[in-house]
Write a structure and sequence with these properties.
Layout lengths: L7 E5 L4 H12 L3 E6 L2 H13 L3 E6 L5 H15 L4 E4 L16 H27 L4 E6 L2 H5 L5 H20 L5 E8 L12 H9 L9 H11 L11 E4 L7
Helix pairs in contact: 1-8, 3-4, 4-6
Length: about 250
């Protein structure tokens, strides 16, 4: 399949985890991918892996919480490739887990806001501005089931992912009469390195809530994401897709 031939896709958090998996899927179907990540060492390794597979890939060291950094990197991608067709915002952090709000440091809350919510806003803003020039685009923000249901003892992560869901709904409606769609994906626990920093008790709680009683896989997330950002997905916007093993109830 070459669904993404002659298309340019930006994936934040593209060095590892869900971002890397989604980027690999899009590149395997013909997309030129621009990987944004703050971890430049891992980014270099991923670019090397991708190029060995024959994928068209470029990398950009970007802190997505920085307005100027996001704006500059988006412009560089536009200049190099001539436009932006797809933007998947997968960058994010978990922050404190197994932590009651009374013990939750304000500095930690602000840090999660900066990356998970402000970063989603900035990536969406500048991607949409680039896509307006062609009146076509696909924007996908990675949210979480925690944003729908609220995982206790994860105040920062849960509330910021709820904010991402709100952002999808707002911007999807703003662009509903254009060729640009804006959607979100709310995974339950997915088997990635990101979970290594999650307290075992927290991870056990979240897994127990999944009716399928297993973790999702990166490949499953990449498969659904690829359809959402394809031309086939033309009549859905402002929507949060479920990939939660039956946990989502709305």
């Amino acid at each position: 399949m070459k669904r993404f031939e002659n298309q340019v896709a930006i994936i934040s958090g593209g060095a590892d985890g869900l971002g890397k998996g989604i980027a690999a899927r899009l590149a395997s179907e013909g997309a030129s991918v621009a990987l944004f990540d703050i971890n430049e060492n891992v980014l270099k390794q991923t670019v090397g892996e991708f190029r060995k597979k024959g994928f068209a890939v470029e990398s950009y060291g970007v802190d997505i919480s920085s307005d100027s950094a996001v704006q500059k990197a988006m412009q560089e991608v536009e200049n190099k490739f001539g436009g932006i067709d797809i933007m998947v915002n997968s960058a994010g952090i978990v922050g404190p887990t197994n932590t009651k709000i009374k013990d939750y440091a304000v500095e930690e809350y602000d840090r999660i806001y900066a990356i998970n919510l402000r970063g989603s806003f900035l990536m969406t803003k500048y991607a949409a501005m680039a896509m307006e020039k062609k009146n076509y685009g696909r924007i996908l923000l990675i949210a979480s089931i925690a944003g729908k249901e609220g995982n206790p003892f994860m105040a920062g992560y849960s509330s910021m992912k709820a904010g991402v869901i709100g952002l999808v709904k707002v911007i999807g409606k703003e662009y509903a009469e254009t060729g640009i769609t804006v959607n979100g994906l709310a995974p339950a626990v997915i088997k990635t390195a990101m979970n290594e920093s999650t307290a075992p008790e927290q991870l056990a709680y979240m897994t127990a809530k999944i009716p399928m009683k297993r973790l999702g896989t990166v490949e499953e997330v990449a498969s659904l994401s690829a359809w959402i950002v394809s031309k086939e997905s033309s009549f859905t916007t402002g929507f949060i897709f479920d990939i939660s093993g039956g946990r989502a109830t709305y």
